[in-house]
Design brief:
Layout lengths: L1 H4 L6 E5 L9 H4 L7 H22 L6 E6 L7 H7 L7 H12 L9 E4 L4 E2 L9 H19 L7
Parallel strand pairs: 1-2, 2-3
Antiparallel strand pairs: 3-4
Helix pairs in contact: 3-6
Length: about 160
């Protein structure tokens, strides 16, 4: 987490989310439950969005901006070709919004928000990302996992 903060207060951390968000299984997050590829993808995207919200709430004005962005659904990526057998929409759609999120004034006050490029605006993510109890449970599990794997506490960042 210290590495994230080295970005500085003028920096931005843009997390690549998705419209494909499903409730996070704490057992799956901590390795006690196996998921299909689709389930793991959708849960990871919600977890990343929840993490973005939680960390932005903890950090202040002297820390980088954090925003979660759905770059667009079914863009022409290898994942879409392999999983769905289709070409997908122009991947430039996703590249454009990620560039805007990283550099444009439009995102200057967007810390802790979710931008849904399918809608072309800031929007609410999956309801679990807005539920403080579910976010806290996911963050506790994530911080415990990081501490276990790294041998260090992460909860006081």
């Amino acid at each position: 987490m210290r590495a994230c903060r080295t970005v500085g207060p003028q920096g931005r951390i843009v997390n690549l989310s998705s419209a494909a968000q499903t409730p996070v299984s704490i057992d799956a997050l901590t390795g006690r439950e196996r998921l299909s590829d689709d389930q793991a993808y959708a849960q990871s995207k919600l977890a990343l969005t929840m993490w973005t919200y939680a960390l932005a709430a903890r950090w202040g004005e002297d820390d980088p901006l954090l925003v979660a962005v759905n770059p667009g659904s079914l863009l022409a990526s290898k994942m879409v070709r392999d999983a769905y057998g289709m070409q997908g929409k122009d991947i430039g759609i996703g590249a454009d919004i990620l560039t805007r999120a990283a550099l444009s004034d439009e995102f200057t006050s967007a810390s802790g928000q979710y931008f849904d490029n399918d809608r072309g605006r800031f929007a609410d993510p999956h309801p679990d990302a807005l539920d403080p109890a579910k976010v806290a449970q996911m963050m506790d599990a994530l911080e415990g996992l990081v501490a276990k794997l790294s041998g260090r506490s992460w909860s006081r960042v």
